[in-house]
């Protein structure tokens, strides 16, 4: 689909304007693009749904393993090597549309992979974990397609977080690892949600 010149100019501007400066700026080119707005609102709802499913699994981990408070597990976390997928391109001062969308896609792929460890941990909840994996893949695909429709270049980031799911030395470490995979994924989704909501408000 052809992208209006005004839209390209606006998205170019998004690459460098600090988030704070965007807040009050009138941007009719973006708000007037109904397809882009529809994409944002549909995927805001989708992201909210995924967040709810992650929260449901967090409650299962809390109820099943009595792992509920992150502060109590920080020392164990140091031994696990579970990294948070980066989203610095989606934050205020460093916000970049292409970079942000690319990081969301890369992070969703990473969590799709690491959720395999949660699936092993909670076989009785396989349906919910597999739905979450499918939703993560679909959200990534939606964003990738929208980037192509807008003519945005995909930014490739280092692949250190896209390897196989982590291996754990004990069942307890596996439990704590599952806890932190879900906690990190929830934080990741919160940031992604705020970025999409910010664009929807422009």
TrEMBL record:
<dbReference type="InterPro" id="IPR030473">
    <property type="entry name" value="IL6/GCSF/MGF_CS"/>
</dbReference>
<dbReference type="InterPro" id="IPR009079">
    <property type="entry name" value="4_helix_cytokine-like_core"/>
</dbReference>
<keyword id="KW-1015">Disulfide bond</keyword>
<dbReference type="GO" id="GO:0005125">
    <property type="term" value="F:cytokine activity"/>
</dbReference>
<keyword id="KW-0964">Secreted</keyword>
<keyword id="KW-0732">Signal</keyword>
<dbReference type="GO" id="GO:0006955">
    <property type="term" value="P:immune response"/>
</dbReference>
<protein>
    <submittedName>
        <fullName>MGF factor</fullName>
    </submittedName>
</protein>
<dbReference type="GO" id="GO:0045639">
    <property type="term" value="P:positive regulation of myeloid cell differentiation"/>
</dbReference>
<dbReference type="InterPro" id="IPR030474">
    <property type="entry name" value="IL-6/GCSF/MGF"/>
</dbReference>
<dbReference type="GO" id="GO:0005576">
    <property type="term" value="C:extracellular region"/>
</dbReference>
<dbReference type="GO" id="GO:0008083">
    <property type="term" value="F:growth factor activity"/>
</dbReference>
<feature type="signal peptide">
    <location>
        <begin position="1"/>
        <end position="24"/>
    </location>
</feature>
<keyword id="KW-0325">Glycoprotein</keyword>
<dbReference type="Pfam" id="PF16647">
    <property type="entry name" value="GCSF"/>
</dbReference>
<comment type="similarity">
    <text>Belongs to the IL-6 superfamily.</text>
</comment>
<dbReference type="GO" id="GO:0005130">
    <property type="term" value="F:granulocyte colony-stimulating factor receptor binding"/>
</dbReference>
<keyword id="KW-0339">Growth factor</keyword>
<dbReference type="InterPro" id="IPR040117">
    <property type="entry name" value="GCSF/MGF"/>
</dbReference>
């Amino acid at each position: 689909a052809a992208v209006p010149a005004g839209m390209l100019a606006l998205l170019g501007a998004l690459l460098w304007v600090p988030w704070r400066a965007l807040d009050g700026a009138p941007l009719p080119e973006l708000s007037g693009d109904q397809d882009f707005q529809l994409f944002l609102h549909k995927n805001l709802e989708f992201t909210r749904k995924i967040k709810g499913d992650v929260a449901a699994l967090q409650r299962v981990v809390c109820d099943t393993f009595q792992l509920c408070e992150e502060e109590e597990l920080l020392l164990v976390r140091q031994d696990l090597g579970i990294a948070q997928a980066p989203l610095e391109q989606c934050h205020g001062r460093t916000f970049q549309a292409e970079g942000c969308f690319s990081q969301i896609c890369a992070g969703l792929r990473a969590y799709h992979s690491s959720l395999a460890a949660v699936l092993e941990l909670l076989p009785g909840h396989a349906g919910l974990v597999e739905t979450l994996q499918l939703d993560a893949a679909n959200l990534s695909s939606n964003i990738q397609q929208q980037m192509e429709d807008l003519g945005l270049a995909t930014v490739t980031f280092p692949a250190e977080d896209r390897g196989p799911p982590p291996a754990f030395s004990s069942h307890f470490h596996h439990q704590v690892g599952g806890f932190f995979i879900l906690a990190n994924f929830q934080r990741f989704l919160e940031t992604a949600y705020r970025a999409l909501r910010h664009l929807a408000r422009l």
